[in-house]
Predict the structure.
Amino acid sequence: MIKVFICDDHQSFAEGLATYLNGVDDIIVAGQARNGLEALEAAETIPMDVMILDVDMPVMNGEETLKALKKMKPEIKVLMLSSLNDLSLVDKMKHLGAEGFRNKEASIDDIIRAIRQINDGFTVFLMRKQETLNRLSIEYNLKHLTGQEIRIVGFMADGYTVKTIAEIMNLSPHTVETHGKTARAKTGAKNVAELVAIAIRKGLI
């Protein structure tokens, strides 16, 4: 279960987001705060995996909170939210240690996907281009792939079937399929072709 903490001074937005997230099987909202100071105080006592942090807040804004949180609790991953679409802002939050960025106009499915990917160890940033086009930029942290998963991806790249890979590696076809699904989940790949493309592009195989 992914424990998520929401920090946003817009009560209706925060409560609506919390309601949606609490309806997801693998996510639970651990708490809420209306400013960064409250969020930091909560982080000292409330277990959380991911903090959703609004950039623009009173008392203590998102930037200040992010800096302090990464010093105090670096293990807590942070998804920044903003109504702004300034790419320099995205780069700044990334430089300060945020694991992700979403515009507040992003769909709930996008936010849920980002929470899961961040919890799995990836950095995920969503930006709008020219106010109309959405562009998803994911930095794949491939170090999370196991040696066995890398071998399987390599065999897939060579065109081997699941059955053949299973025979070569002395595994069951089900185990090979499971490793393949896990590798796709870790990299965010939608299918085997995209998984292979990512692995090749990153020099993994």
Observations:
- The beta strands are 2-7, 27-33, 50-54, 77-82, 100-103, 123-129, 133-139.
